[in-house]
Amino acid sequence: MAITILMPALSPTMEEGKLAKWLVKEGDAVKSGDILAEIETDKATMEFEAVDEGRIGKIIVPEGTEGVKVNAPIATLLDEGEDAAPDIPSAMASIKDAVTAETKKPEAPKPAAAPAEPKGERVFASPLARRIAEQKGIDIASLAGSGPRGRIVKADVESAKAALAPKKVEAPSAQPSAQAAPSVAGIHPLPDARAFFKPEDYDEIPHDSMRKAIARRLTSSKTLIPHFYLTVDCRIDNLLSTRARLNEAAAKGAYKLSVNDFVVKASALALMRVPEVNASWTETAILRHKHADVGVAVALDFGLITPIVFRAEEKGLAAISNEVKSLAERARAKKLKPSEFEGGGFAVSNLGMFGIKQFTGVINPPHAAILAVGAGESRAVVRDGKVEAATMMTVTLSCDHRVIDGATGARFLDAFKQFVEEPAAMLL
User: Fold this and answer.
1) CB count, 10 Å around CB of 253?
2) In this structure, which of 69, 148, 262, 418 has its CB flanked by the most CB atoms within 10 Å?
3) Pairing mode of beta strands 303-305, 298-300
4) Do the domains at 3-103 and 113-165 have one common CATH topology?
5) d(Cα 407, Cα 251) in Å, to the nearest integer?
6) Quick one: 245 exposed, middle or buried, by C-beta within 10 A (0-12, 13-18, 19+)?
7) Nearest 5°: CA angle at 38, between 37 and 43?
8) How far is CA 298 from the centre of its chain?
9) Contacts for 106 with CB less than 8 Å, ≥ 6 apart
10) Residues 324, 264 contacting (CB under 8 angstroms)
11) Are 309 and 264 in contact (CB under 8 A)?
12) Contact between 295 and 346 (Cβ < 8 Å)
């Protein structure tokens, strides 16, 4: 009897993926552990292994198909000696149709329909005017058009008074749209930007899976997590001189330390000193993590990803440096495993190399905080009553107020500052 091969869930948060490439064809014999296909999620491309052995009977979802839902049928596997049917059985055909419809690439959004018009009476209006009228809740049939032959145009709708907006009774929908905004009291979906521009004045760049994931996740974060921010200046002259000495003493190619490597190590040690920050929120409890698993934000041409340096408190600067470089290279090639970028308890985002002096980061759950690191720059500071030049670096901690209180965040930054300003303290 044929076995149905389903779209795998390659990470705990995966809901759909792209079947990037089939590595087998119909009729091929496979055994457990053989690579069947490459599956592309929003942030990585992973290999999908066979669980059972047999022969590929029918490939239901062709390679290149996007938006394939987890657990949707993608192929069939025949037992040894079982003949492949010339066509998919009727039951499987219906499944294939459902998958095809479900994974069909979505079309560009159509203009919103105008409000219902009285039967037998046609209203002449431009599509843009209808869309704006719908957004403003104006009955377009009640307007007088100033366009050719009385056609209602954009200016007519924009100049309409609020009194023309009828009271509408919305029919309850059976299910909320997959694209609907988060269901939070007082928050309404934003208008489609197309309503404000002429089609010839812009180019549409369709969202890829990573951009959709970033938008969905960080919109939820800023909407549902109560952020607050703490900022401190760190003097990094000692750090820079220590870095220079260590890099000069390194064997050829052994390592090349960056300021960010010191920041990751200092963050990890500060998390162990102030464990209240090294935590995650759940609806029933706060999870206090036993190790400092620090995510490092990596900018990609197609988005952003935060691979994790696990147990960073136990690793030396050279190990952290080499690991971050390896993670970043594989991230850019979309070769990271989900276990390498999902989870963690804290994150570091460094825009100092771009000359950014100060910024705030958006918390990426399940983290309860993210440290935004600015550029080191020479500033005038007062020390022992005298003005002198010093290299200063501004960092800002974004905190989840459900987990971290202001004083707790301040204690973390104080510990971080001590480690950064005196790197030798990291050895204690």
Assistant:
1) 6
2) 262
3) antiparallel
4) no
5) 43
6) exposed
7) 155
8) 12
9) 67
10) yes
11) yes
12) yes
For residue 11 the two structure tokens come to 């990470």
Instruction: Show me where the domains of the chain are located.
Output: 3-103, 113-165, 212-427
| Tokens of residue 195, six digits | 């309503």
**Contact by Cβ (8 Å): 2, 78:** yes
Fold of 3-103: OB fold (Dihydrolipoamide Acetyltransferase, E2P) (2.40.50)
Question: Around Cβ 235, how many Cβ atoms within 10 Å?
Answer: 18
336 within 8 A of 327, measured Cβ to Cβ? yes
CA distance 383 to 401: 34
At 200, list the tokens: 């010839």
Per-residue pLDDT of the chain (428 residues; tens, 9 = 90+): 678 888 888 776 777 888 888 998 888 888 888 889 888 877 678 888 888 888 888 899 998 888 888 889 999 888 766 665 444 444 344 444 544 444 454 454 444 444 444 444 567 777 677 777 777 778 777 777 776 667 777 777 777 754 444 444 444 444 443 344 444 566 777 888 988 999 999 999 988 878 888 888 899 999 999 999 999 999 999 999 999 999 998 877 789 999 999 999 999 999 999 999 999 999 999 999 999 999 999 998 878 899 999 999 999 999 999 999 999 999 888 888 888 998 999 999 999 999 999 999 999 999 999 999 999 999 999 988 999 999 999 999 999 999 999 999 999 999 999 999 999 999 88
Q: Where are the alpha helices (DSSP H) in 281-405?
A: 317-332
Fold classified for 212-427: Chloramphenicol Acetyltransferase (3.30.559)
Does the global pTM surpass 0.70?
Answer: no
Residue 382 CA to residue 389 CA, distance in Å, equals 9
Q: Which CATH number fits domain 113-165: 3.40.30.10, 4.10.320.10, 1.10.10.10, 3.90.550.10?
A: 4.10.320.10
Q: In 13-112, where do the E strands start and end? A: 16-22, 29-30, 35-40, 45-49, 54-59, 65-69, 73-78
First to last CA, the chain: 64
Letter for the amino acid at 237? D
With H, G, I as helix, E, B as strand and everything else as coil, classify residue 209: helix
- Secondary structure element (H or E) that encloses residue 381, with its range: strand 369-383
Active site residues: 401
